[in-house]
């Protein structure tokens, strides 16, 4: 049975520590932080390039993007950008990295093979979380201060449409089937389910100040961090019903689902630790310390099976 | 060697102003505690009264509460706190949990004068033997979120303003709660 264990090798979570200027690498199998990598100032966003075996990190206070090599667990490069980068997202082919400018109403597209090649294009006010559609044709941008989502044609970098959502949309997550973008509306205490093709939205209640969302692979359950309620809501996607509210650390922000361990991992900014939730029981099974002000904004789990 | 050092200094120089200034996207964390020799229930009774902050904070002149619709159209309690130094703090009550002895509120910079923003504190009261520990914890950002903020609205100014308010407040809370009243 050894080969079976190898095939299901554990994944890794890359956690940004805004207050320590580092990234913690969690070996999910052992539930231990095995590496701490120095990056730029105030790292916030994470984007995972499974095929490149690289991790991109936005450093909000040094106006750079760090590139980390998964194999060596070292920073390869710090890409200079002329913006205050927070939300970052990769195209499906990993050829383009998008970085949102918190201070400006713009996003830049960076060629990952030639990071000096950067193209800026317009977004709404305070662009935050982003996600690329499964067919790689559209980029969705949450405009926190204009309460809407900008949809961009990734070929032309021109706007296709803007879709109003709740107040202060922040993080975006694509549903596992690729048909829906989950939008957390921080001030409205709600989740918008945005149809990727029709742009119709449906709204569901969350706890106080939702900051991030992750879903199980069947799309049935959505886990939402409630930043001001020290909890994660488990929402049934078909009905919008909150079936459980799980206590986690203070100011939980980043959240992602790991298909190998079936754990949801939550970064608690206020208590400098991670809550690991077993999605089969919806119980917190481990609390792992990280460094100061951990955030992990974006998809942050490196899938070791994806590059093979 | 001298020449080499000179070059390094030159390449580093342009980075310094940017890194020193930029903090807008990264919220700061505030936490402060005070230990009080008085029963927790007595301390909590002082803190939970959202309409009477002057009862425990020596820097507060008056508190006026009102109920209005919030940004989501829900009824919410707001207060206008007049400070003795002429300042104003406008705040929204989020919850007052008697069982857990925890008060949560939000500071609204647009109608206030102290220069910090996005401040969402939780004040918690915990019995510890015969003493009571009061802790305030919350996230906040500077008032000017741009890359190069005005000096009076930068991270340091925000941190100083929050600290001054709670240093004064916790000192007077302690003396009020520990007095025989």
From TrEMBL, chain A:
It comes from the Bacteria. Pfam families: Lactonase. This is YncE family protein.
UniProtKB/TrEMBL annotation, chain B:
Keywords: Signal. Residues 1-22 form the signal peptide. CDD domains: PYR_PYL_RCAR_like. It comes from the Bacteria. This is SRPBCC family protein.
């Amino acid at each position: 049975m050894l080969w079976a264990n190898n095939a299901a090798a554990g994944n890794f979570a890359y956690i940004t520590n805004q207050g320590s200027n580092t990234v913690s690498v969690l070996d999910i199998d052992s539930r231990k932080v095995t590496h701490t990598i120095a990056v730029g100032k105030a790292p916030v966003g994470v984007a995972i390039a499974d095929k490149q075996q690289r991790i991109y990190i936005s450093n909000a206070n040094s106006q750079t993007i760090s590139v980390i090599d998964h194999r060596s667990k070292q920073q390869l490069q710090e890409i200079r950008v002329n913006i205050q980068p927070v939300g970052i997202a990769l195209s499906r082919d990993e050829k383009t990295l998008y970085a949102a400018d918190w201070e400006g109403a713009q996003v830049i597209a960076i060629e990952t093979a030639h990071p000096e090649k950067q193209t800026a294009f317009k977004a709404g006010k305070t662009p935050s979380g982003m996600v690329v559609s499964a067919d790689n044709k559209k980029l969705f941008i949450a405009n926190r201060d204009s309460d809407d989502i900008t949809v961009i044609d990734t070929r032309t970098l021109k706007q296709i449409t803007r879709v109003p959502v709740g107040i202060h949309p922040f993080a975006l997550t694509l549903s596992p089937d690729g048909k829906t973008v989950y939008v957390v509306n921080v001030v409205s205490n709600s989740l918008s389910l945005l149809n990727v093709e029709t742009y119709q939205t449906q709204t569901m209640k969350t706890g106080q100040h939702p900051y991030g969302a992750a879903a199980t692979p069947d799309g049935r359950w959505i886990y939402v961090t409630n930043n001001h309620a020290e909890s994660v809501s488990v929402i049934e996607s078909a009905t919008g019903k909150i079936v459980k509210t799980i206590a986690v650390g203070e100011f939980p922000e980043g959240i992602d689902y790991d298909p190998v361990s079936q754990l949801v991992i939550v970064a608690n900014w206020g208590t400098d630790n991670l809550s690991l939730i077993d999605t089969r029981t919806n119980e917190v099974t481990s609390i792992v310390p990280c460094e100061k002000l951990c955030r992990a904004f974006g998809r942050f789990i490196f899938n070791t099976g994806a590059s093979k | 060697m001298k020449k080499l050092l000179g070059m390094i200094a030159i390449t580093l120089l342009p980075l310094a102003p940017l890194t020193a200034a930029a903090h807008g996207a990264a919220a700061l964390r505030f936490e402060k505690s005070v230990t009080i020799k008085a029963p927790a229930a007595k301390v909590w009774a002082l803190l939970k009264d959202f309409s009477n902050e002057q009862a425990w904070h020596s820097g507060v002149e008056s508190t006026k509460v009102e109920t209005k619709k919030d940004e989501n159209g829900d009824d919410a309690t707001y207060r206008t706190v007049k400070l003795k130094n002429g300042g104003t703090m406008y705040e929204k009550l989020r919850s007052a949990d008697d069982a857990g002895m925890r008060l949560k509120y939000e500071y609204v910079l647009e109608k206030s004068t102290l220069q910090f923003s996005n401040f969402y504190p939780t004040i918690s009261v915990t019995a510890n033997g015969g003493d009571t520990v009061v802790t305030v914890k919350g996230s906040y950002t500077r008032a000017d979120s741009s890359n190069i903020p005005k000096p009076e609205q930068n991270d340091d100014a925000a941190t100083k303003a929050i600290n001054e308010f709670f240093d004064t407040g916790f000192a007077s809370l302690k003396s009020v709660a520990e007095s025989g009243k």
